[in-house]
Specification:
- It is a single chain.
- This protein is of the alpha+beta class.
- It has seven helices and twelve strands.
- The protein has helices spanning 12-16, 22-25, 109-118, 120-146, 149-164, 182-189, 193-205; strands at 31-33, 38-40, 48-54, 57-62, 68-74, 79-80, 94-97, 102-108, 165-167, 174-177, 209-211, 215-218.
- Helix 3 (109-118) packs across helix 4.
- The chain is globular, with a radius of gyration of 18 Å.
- Mean pLDDT is 84; it is low at 1-10.
- Residues 147-222 form the HTH crp-type domain.
- InterPro entries: cNMP-bd_dom (IPR000595), cNMP-bd_dom_sf (IPR018490), Env_Response_Regulators (IPR050397), HTH_CRP (IPR012318), RmlC-like_jellyroll (IPR014710), WH-like_DNA-bd_sf (IPR036388), WH_DNA-bd_sf (IPR036390).
- One of its GO terms (molecular function) is DNA binding.
């Protein structure tokens, strides 16, 4: 099982949290957030990147009409705000806690640049992560704009299989243990929760999938 934000089986939180480095440990504190608390807003100064110790964080932006567009939902061990590393001065998105016990490890851009200068392999992984995220976001936005809801659900299930899936040795089915709620997934693919539920139930009736709250099983016949 491999999360999309874990590079080469290395958990970024374990790699980057300043508590792992004596030079930064004394001056560092975790930040705690409740559900619906903003970690940063659009147009905030971008001076840090953030690692999730626990909980979940939603990344998105608002349209001129005030509608919320969700770009990503991240969970334990994942990194966000990383565009600050590339020189972004103002946030072009918001970050909001969607869990009542979210704990965040902030890392200054200066610290990140120091770590990247000291370790070329680590630096390459960070740039690889940023490029990967941009490509995935472009693909997801293209899907929302040009594909119907059923196609979007199928494609997102394939993404989940790549990120969190493993093959069940007894049946050959792909088992996906993921961190998302149905509401999370509906937001990510740009549809309503009732529409998402209807499509999932239709796929289940056709024996293509089976699912519970935190697990989706792609049948081998699919």
């Amino acid at each position: 099982m491999q999360s999309i934000w874990v590079l080469e089986d290395v958990n970024l939180f374990r790699m980057l949290c300043p508590h792992k480095f004596k030079a930064y440990k004394k001056q560092h504190n975790f930040l705690n957030y409740k559900k619906e608390d903003f970690i940063y807003f659009e147009e905030d100064h971008a001076s840090k990147v953030y690692l999730i110790e626990k909980g979940k964080v939603k990344i998105g932006h608002y349209t001129e009409a005030g509608d919320e567009i969700v770009k990503a939902i991240l969970s334990k061990g994942e990194l966000f705000g990383e565009k600050a590393i590339l020189g972004e001065e103002r946030r072009k998105e918001f970050a909001k806690s969607i869990d009542n016990t979210t704990s965040i490890c902030p890392v200054s851009v200066e610290t990140m640049h120091e770590l990247m200068r000291e370790n070329r392999s680590f630096s390459f992984r960070i740039y690889k992560l940023i490029g990967f995220r941009i490509k995935r976001l472009e693909r997801r936005l293209d899907s929302i704009l040009f594909k119907d809801a059923e196609t979007r659900v199928h494609e997102f299930l394939q993404e989940l299989a790549e990120d969190y899936g493993y093959c069940c040795p007894n049946t050959g089915d792909t088992v996906i243990k993921h961190p998302y709620t149905q509401k999370d997934i509906a937001h990510l693919i740009g549809t309503s929760r009732p529409t998402f539920n209807a499509i999932m139930n239709k796929m289940k009736e056709n024996d293509l999938i089976d699912f519970s709250r935190k697990e989706i099983r792609l049948k081998i016949s699919a």
